[in-house]
Amino acid sequence: MITRLIESCIESHLFKGKVLLIYGARQVGKTTLVKKLCQRFPGSLYLNCDEPDIRASLENRTSTELKAFVGDHRLIVLDEAQRIPNIGLTLKLWVDQFPDVQIIATGSSSFELSDSVQEPLTGRKKEFHLFPISLEEIKAHSSQTEAHRLLERRLIVGSYPEIVQKEGPEAESLIRDIAASYLYKDILMFHRIRNPEVLTRLLQALALQLGQEVSNNELSQLLGIDKNTVASYIHILEQNFVIFRLTSFSRNLRNELKKSQKIYFYDNGIRNAILNQFGPLALRQDIGALWENLMISERIKFHSNRLLVVNRYFWRSHSQQEIDYLEEDGGLLRAFEFKWKSKKQSIPPLFSRAYPDTPFAKITSEDYWRFVAE
Known about the structure:
The strands form two sheets. Strands 7-6-8-9-10-11 form a six-stranded mixed sheet, sandwiched between helices. The chain is α/β, with parallel strands linked by helices. The chain has two domains: 6-129, P-loop containing nucleotide triphosphate hydrolases (Rossmann fold); 135-373, no CATH class. The protein has 18 helices and eleven strands. α13 crosses α14. Helix content is 46%, strand content 17%.
């Protein structure tokens, strides 16, 4: 079993008077992680909130009823807690009335769980995010050499826990199943999307525009739906950990693009499953986009596993000078360009003049470990 780096961070926050919330897509390993924590602490209770009887036992209960239900357990896990109506108020009651009891709640939809607990748990919660397995975690489990050897597989079939242990057609079949069951069944059920075909076509359009600027107006015309509906669907996909956005960075120049966005997938395998494209890298035209997607998603995992918060952007001018990825931390900028194979690359002159002394690095398939696991 591959050890998740965020596990030690979660453990260090146990029994400090706060509810711990773990967000992440289905199948990324939340249940495995919390069950492992339960094994370390005698007197733990794991509750699967997908089960109707568990939901009924926890919905709109008094503190006396909650205490009778959980007994003397000191660590209680509510897996897929967003399924419990009014879960925020239940968790508030728990943490206020039983401060010695540690509650861990997981959710595969931050839209539902986060919205439910935001106000009731103000000052009473600590949030974590679990993503598909990182290259850094694979490296720690085996070796840097082994992790690099399988880099092409990560670019094509992604890094969901079950996928990392599979190769060939079995991995491709499995990521197709994960994409179908998660993207369509969960999202359509929870958000009552009336036209699943539009969602499918939107995902395909976003997958095809990987690494490119995305316009809600253009997507609206392509799909034949209102641009506000496009924005709503994109927001739902974000909140369910399918995609994430980078907005354009603009501070000084009139020539800089403003209010522009690029959309990426948290997992390369999900993106390729949407398009049903699992061909080898040697036969692909999208290797640059796949590499950019992998590196940015790995960087997000790197920061999340350390509970670090940074601002992320891309930069482009109207004259087509561009930088793939910017990070801003404490007012300081760092610039990165992603190239699958090593090519000469320098920082764009327009950017360099506007933001002098900004560190710039090129991330290639020969030199990427410091970026994802420094």
